Description:
This protein is α/β, with parallel strands linked by helices and 246 residues long. Helices cover 41% and strands 19% of the residues. The chain folds into two domains: 3-107, no CATH class; 114-243, 3-Layer(aba) Sandwich (Rossmann fold), CATH 3.40.50. It has helices at residues 3-15, 20-27, 44-48, 61-75, 85-91, 127-140, 155-159, 162-167, 181-186, 209-216, 231-243, and strands at 33-34, 39-40, 54-55, 78-81, 97-99, 104-107, 114-121, 142-148, 170-175, 193-197, 223-225. Helix 1 (3-15) packs antiparallel against helix 2, helix 4 packs across helix 5 (85-91) and helix 6 packs parallel to helix 11.
Amino acid sequence: MDSVTLRKILRSLQSGRIDLDEAMEAVKHLPFEDLAFAKIDHHRQVRQGIPEVVFAEGKREEDVVSIGRAIFRRSGRLLVTKASAAIHSKLRIESAVFHPVSRVIAAGAERQRRGLILVVAAGTSDIPVAEEAAVTASFLGSRVETAYDVGVAGIHRLLSVKKSLFAARVVVVVAGMEGALPSVVGGLVDKPIVAVPTSVGYGTSLRGLTALFAMLNSCVPGIGVMNIDNGFGAGCLAHRINALGR
Length: 246
């Protein structure tokens, strides 16, 4: 449930179109619905502006399906991260789309896209994390463009998308290996940068720790750093910043 839906219920009650029992039925699962193995926070959209999102990895498929159906039933919206084609099939939600590269399931995305977020990936191996950020931000209502395989080993590739870099309100920069790309982008633009280290790289990349430390130690001001492989978190933060420009 979001603030728009809650306002409609309260106005209907105020005008007499529904009675008290009908209003109570509509909001009975606020603040949460108890499924015994999970407590679904239907109130989160009202509080935070972002609905509860299901992280599928590590959960039983049947539990993810039950949680997903309960969320969609109450709100008409659903986002599942680190999902699979099997979960998508078992959900049986007609409007749900499975994005195989990012492993995200989305249903009921915002129809109107605002502002502009540019999602940049250093290498092709970073694309799954970048796509998670892009799908998330788009689902929440931001207009998103992408520029992939523009890492520092061939800096001319990044310069070829400078028009989009300068036009965006927020730039999400996803990189593994040595994690240098956010610093380079940060040296070119005056926009907030959300940096995402990935676990891509050879031995001393330490499954993303090297990229994480490099981004945290950047000499460029105005860079916010997410956790390793956290494209979802980057998409949420970028959307919130983008929404401030409305």
